[in-house]
Amino acid sequence: QVQLVESGGGSVPAGGSLRLSCIANGYKASGYCMGWYRQTPGADREEVATLDKDGVATYADSAKGRFTISGDNVKNTLYLQMDSLKPEDAAVYYCASDSRSYCDYARKYGMDYWGNGTLVTITS
C-alpha cells in the first residue's frame, strides 16, 4: 500500500527557510514521478516542483531560484528545500507520486497518490 507522509512544515519569518520531507512507504519512490504541490483556502492546488525517475526537476515560476526538490533513494524520501520564503508561499504543502516514471502525464491528468499535507505559515 502506497503511503506518503509529509513533515517539516511550520511557522517561519519572511526571508527564512524550511525543508519539507516526504517519506514514501510501500514502494520504491525513486522510480516514479514525484512532486510537491500547495494549496491555500479557496484556491486550486498548484504544482510547485516535480522530480522524475531520471532526476530531472521542474519548478513553477514562483519557485524557481528559491526552492529545490531532491530525493534520497536510500531513505526513500523526497525533499523540498524552500529558501527566501515570501508571505505568498504560505499554504498547505502536499507530497504526491505518480505510478509513471515521468511527469508529463501526471502534470496533465494528476498524480495518483497524495500525502495529507503539512502547513507552512510565513510571519512578517
Output the structural class. mainly beta
Approximately how much beta-strand content do the residues carry? over 45%
- Helix coverage percent: under 10%
Number of strands: 11
Q: Could you list the spans in which at least 5 consecutive residues all have pLDDT below 50?
A: none
The whole-angstrom Rg is 13 Å
- The ordered string of helix (H) and strand (E) elements is EEEEEEEEEHEE
Distance between the termini: 41 Å
Main sheet: strands, sense, barrel = 7 strands, mixed
Give the integer mean of the pLDDT values: 95
Categorize the overall geometry. globular
Question: Given the structure, what is the number of helices?
Answer: 1
Walk me through this protein's architecture:
The protein is mainly beta. The chain is built from one helix and eleven strands. Strands 2, 4, 5, 6, 9, 10 and 11 form a seven-stranded mixed beta sheet that branches. A four-stranded antiparallel beta sheet has the order 1-3-8-7, with no helix packed on it. The radius of gyration is 13 Å and the shape is globular. The model has no long low-confidence stretch (mean pLDDT about 95).
